[in-house]
Design brief:
OB fold (Dihydrolipoamide Acetyltransferase, E2P); 6-stranded mixed sheet; 33% strand; binds adenosine-5'-diphosphate; binds magnesium ion; ATP binding; ATP hydrolysis activity
């Protein structure tokens, strides 16, 4: 179990994180979401022991995580951390990078393990390619495989799919998170992308202005976003009195209603259109299955 007990930290006098307090059970997946600059990476670095806390304590089970002032070599065997900027050995192959920390004592087992890891990050066909020849996204996948190679108890991932293209991203997310769950590895992901979190996290925390402003399951946060900031992670939304936060898919076009809007623009989104409209001088976004023409008047109803 990871216990983060009321920690605070600043690189200088200004606090980047204040009174951060949460726990995660072994095997659970937590995501930390927040805008750029909200302190996600800093929080992961603190969990890893890269900096000394100003206040509070962090424990992994009975072990207290210590910063550099108390711990000569940063990091612990039970914990792996994949930073936003990952560092690999460019002149050796993908397989060698992934196997670097695995024992050479049983070469066949090592080989099998490397093959398994290559499969998790979907790089089997690149096993013998030198890392310097890989794209940014492929390098990121090598970094992920290296981090899980020695089966940590807890893994910290900072924007783990940020360099990976959309073709690969979806299946890679499923593959990696499924692997971590199966092995009961506790996982913390810092991200601004809801798709990294919503399907895979047991719990999410939202950072804003140095503090945790919300902490709940993805379902609860999505269904009852307490602030527009929280809703903005999940998709297009409106603030409509007296309904409050209304996602674009919660507005339906109907035959007749007292809510009338005038279409301003339709954006093609593949399996739907996002319609921008004007309702009593308020800009409105809603989803519709077909294009609507500019100037067209529509009746709407809201279903929350
Ligand atoms: P996020 O990962 O959410 O984008 P960061 O943790 O990287 O946020 O940054 C949080 C704040 O701390 C930002 O204001 C950033 O400028 C500042 N910061 C990050 N790293 C350093 C550093 N090494 N020295 C000083 N300030 C930093
Ligand atoms: Mg960051």
């Amino acid at each position: 179990m990871l216990q983060v007990k009321n920690i605070s930290f600043g690189y200088n006098k200004k606090k980047v994180l204040k009174n951060i307090d949460f726990t995660i059970n072994t095997g659970e997946h937590l995501s930390i979401i927040g805008e750029s600059g909200s302190g996600k990476s800093t929080l992961l670095k603190l969990l890893y022991g890269e900096y000394d806390l100003n206040e509070g304590e962090i424990f992994w089970n009975k072990t207290k995580i210590l910063g550099p002032a108390f711990n000569l070599i940063v990091g612990y065997d039970f914990m792996k951390y994949v930073a936003q900027e990952f560092d690999l050995m460019p002149f050796t192959t993908v397989a060698e990078n992934i196997g670097e920390f695995l024992s050479n004592f049983y070469p066949e087992e090592k080989q099998k393990r490397v093959e398994e890891l290559l499969e998790v990050v979907q790089l089997s066909t690149f096993a013998n390619t030198k890392v310097k020849l890989l794209s940014g996204g492929q390098k990121q996948r090598v970094a992920l495989a290296r981090a899980i190679a020695k089966q940590p108890e807890i893994i910290l991932l900072d924007e783990p799919f940020s360099h990976i293209d959309n073709f690969k991203k979806q299946s890679l997310r499923r593959s990696l998170f499924k692997y971590l769950k199966n092995k009961n590895i506790t996982c913390i992901v810092a991200t601004h992308d809801k798709d990294d979190a919503i399907s895979f996290s047991d719990k999410m925390i939202v950072l804003h202005n140095s503090e945790i402003i919300a902490s709940d399951t993805p379902q609860q946060l999505y269904n009852n976003p307490k602030t527009p900031l929280i809703a903005s992670f999940f998709g297009e939304f409106n603030v409509i009195e007296p309904y409050g936060i209304v996602y674009s898919h919660q507005i339906k076009v109907v035959e007749n209603s007292s809510l009338k809007a005038t279409v301003k623009q339709s954006y093609y989104k593949g399996n739907y259109y996002l319609i921008e409209a004007n309702m009593n001088e308020q800009n409105l976004l809603f989803k519709y299955y077909k294009e609507l023409k500019k100037g067209q008047e529509v009746a709407l109803s809201i279903h929350k």
